[in-house]
Amino acid sequence: MLTSSCTAPVKDDIEYEVRTFQLGFGDKQTPYQAAPSPEVEKLWRDLYSTGIPSLIPLDAALQLPNMTIPFPHDEEGRYIISLDVFHQLHCLDRNFARHDETDEELLGMDHIDHCVDLIRQSLMCNADTSVLTWAWDIATKTNVPHVDVAHVCKNFDKIQVWAAGYSAHGREFDAEFETANDTL
Predict the structure, then answer these.
(1) How far are the Cα atoms of 31, 71, 87, 123, 174 from residue 177, in angstroms, in the given order?
(2) Residue-wise pLDDT tens for the chain (184 aa)?
(3) Burial class for 81, CB neighbours closer than 10 Å (0-12, 13-18, 19+)
(4) Where in the cell is it found (predicted)?
(5) Between vectors from CA 129 to CA 123 and to CA 132, what angle results, nearest 5°?
(6) Structural contact between residues 121 and 102, judged by C-beta atoms closer than 8 angstroms
(7) Is 71 in a helix, a strand, or coil?
(8) Which of 122, 55, 125, 66 lies closest to 90 in space, CA to CA?
């Protein structure tokens, strides 16, 4: 039987928690919804920057369902990966968190299309089945869903701690260094 992220190198470090999502409207907005600023930009980047990319030992790389390559010139012979959550957060940040319009990464429609579809696939794959309840809203005089309900979540802080321990962040990665014959 398959289980969620059954071969992910982080699987033994994942903890689950019950978390109530923040509503995201009015005075219940999260800091990620604030107007663009260097502080907001840093908040977004801090979510994913330590996790792109990560380096894992050969024994962990051999357990992956997909092949990966060794990190070029790594003295320990580690292999390069990224947990997809960090890629997804990067995509969300690059395309929807209001950034400086001159950012070159925002200009490519192929990149935007890739990111939107990646997030769609992840939402469908993870299929959060938390139950939203409905109630009468006096202000709008309509029935509205309550999104501020309990969810069972992976503890993201623990995943970030794992990623920081395996981070290749700050190391130069030569994407043009041929490793075709070294793929696991």
Answers:
(1) 39, 10, 22, 34, 5
(2) 445 555 678 888 889 999 888 877 778 788 888 888 899 889 989 999 888 889 999 999 998 888 898 888 889 999 999 898 998 898 888 776 655 554 555 557 777 778 888 888 888 888 888 777 787 889 999 988 877 888 899 999 999 999 999 998 777 777 777 776 666 6
(3) buried
(4) Membrane
(5) 110
(6) no
(7) coil
(8) 122
State the residue for tokens 């039987």.
Answer: 1
Burial 14-30 (b: 16+ CB within 10 A, else e): eeeeeeebeeeeeeeee
Extract the tokens encoding 172: 């130069």
Whether 131 and 137 have beta carbons less than 8 Å apart is answered as no
pTM value is: 0.77
